[in-house]
Amino acid sequence: MVRQLVGGVVIAWAALIGAVETLDLAVVSIDSVEYGDCLLYASADEIFPIKIVPCDTAHDAQAFDSIDLSHYDSFPGEAVFMEEWIQVCMPQFENFVGSEPLDSKLFANSLMPRWESWNHGSQSVLCVAESVHGQIDFDAQDSGR
């Protein structure tokens, strides 16, 4: 995972392999993650596979938007992903959490496809809220945190 500081806001992203595990261990496309789903990463060092868990249990992130990039004819690359992320995810973070990014205990992150997963149909960027202090155990939506 790569992290950068841009204008006082932490930006983090990870390579997306295109599959999410639900609690019953059924594998679904990352594009099937829905608004408000709480995600548990594989470990502190590995994001994938991801499990969808209840928001009142410990989790690493909560999905609050996704960006469909299938209109690009070929893999657009990280710079395009970041531009789309800044235009879509950053404004939606405040709407989702209920506080401005600089006042929040959470930050906006994204899961972005790699070239390999892009060519297998995973052509979206997932916007997620995470904590800089590790896992969270609450629903971030409208939490004001």
Describe this structure in words.
With 145 residues, the chain is of the alpha+beta class. The protein has one domain (2-131). It contains 2 helices and 9 strands. The protein has helices spanning 78-97, 115-119; strands at 2-6, 9-16, 19-22, 27-29, 38-40, 50-53, 61-68, 106-113, 124-131. A 9-stranded mixed beta sheet has the order 1-2-8-9-7-5-6-3-4. Residues 1-28 have low confidence and may be disordered.
- Count of folded domains: 1
Shape: globular
> What proportion of the residues form beta strands (DSSP E)?
35-45%
Helix content estimate: 10-25%
Strand line-up in the sheet with most strands: 1-2-8-9-7-5-6-3-4
Mean pLDDT: 81
N- to C-terminal distance: 24 Å
Question: What sequence of helices (H) and strands (E) makes up the elements?
Answer: EEEEEEEHEHE
By DSSP (H or I, 4+ residues per run), the number of helices equals 2
Return Rg in Å.
Answer: 14 Å
Major beta-sheet overview: 9 strands, mixed
Computed structural class:
alpha+beta
**Tally of extended strands?**
9
Low confidence ranges? 1-28
